[in-house]
Amino acid sequence: MSDSQVHFGGPDRPIGTLRDLLAQRIRLVPTDGTIDWVTYYFRDRELAAALVEARERGVDVRVTLDGHPRTPHANDAVVEILERGLGSGLRVVRGRFDRTPIGKVARPRLHEKLYCFSHPSPVAFVGSFNPSSDAPELAPEVIEEIGDHARAYNLLVELRDPVLVGALTAHARSLHTARHACWDRFAASANREISYGGYSIHFWPRVRRHPIMRMLHGLESGSRIRIAASHVSGPSSLSGLSALAARGLKIELITESTRRRVPEESERRLVRAGIGLRRLLGDEWIPMHDKFLLAETSSRRCAVFGSFNWSEPSYRLNREIAVATEDPRLFEAFARRWAELSAAAD
Questions:
Q1: Residue 22: how many other CB atoms lie within 10 Å
Q2: Does the pTM exceed 0.85?
Q3: Which CATH number among 3.30.2130.30, 3.30.40.10, 3.40.30.10, 3.30.870.10 corresponds to the domain 5-182?
Q4: 191: confidence class by pLDDT, cuts 50, 70, 90
């Protein structure tokens, strides 16, 4: 197993823990090093300035981000900074119909969160964290919409294996030059699996079956499934999880308190299926944005983490990433976090 580490953010951690981790890694990359980022929301102007400073000292910096996320103008201030400072090192993904009702609903979002650094040793961070908070906050209405992710429950997993880091860096660079169109799901790269050292990495959109659901359907009756999820909605997720419960899998789910990301109808349907669902207590402006899964059978334990949601856009449209591993250290780290979330849940 590779030497990996989980970093958690949340109201029980110092404010800005994960953004400070990324800021530190930017500072450590020397001249002739490389930084490759892919993210959905990016509003942290200080982090953007740090990336520009790295470019000025000779670091090859590539940033790929969504130009029209669900909160449409959220990234505009950072885009302006990076356009001036990175030039062709910035790729802003926009759709032709972004500002139309159809585009808002149907345009695939660049929802991955991936941060790759070449020095002082190659690392790639994969998880749920967007640098989406800013200080000072110039647009509090955005925080009212998406929550304060400097304080939110979030995670980044630091992968250090050179083979995995190399594959993820190559993936980030492919997104920097990709066309990002509705036919992306048919590309071989979207449907491939990167497997090495006890890890498997999966990408969306895809035409092949959902890889995590495929794995769960292969588990024996009586297996325990624990899911921390920020979004649970849509027929694909609800029917899929309900079918697993009907097969005898014991599913527990912790999610956040807001009804927008987990509607009451979703909750009722999952509870009817025998799934134990609890909501995390606390301030509604501090989201539960963790995205991980723990699967246990009589002979096997597996952890899954990444950017993917249990929602229709993640299933069908968005650029997403998931990593599955049987690394016992990562499993135990996620199990401890589950216990902490469980203690804070209703």
A1: 23
A2: yes
A3: 3.30.870.10
A4: confident
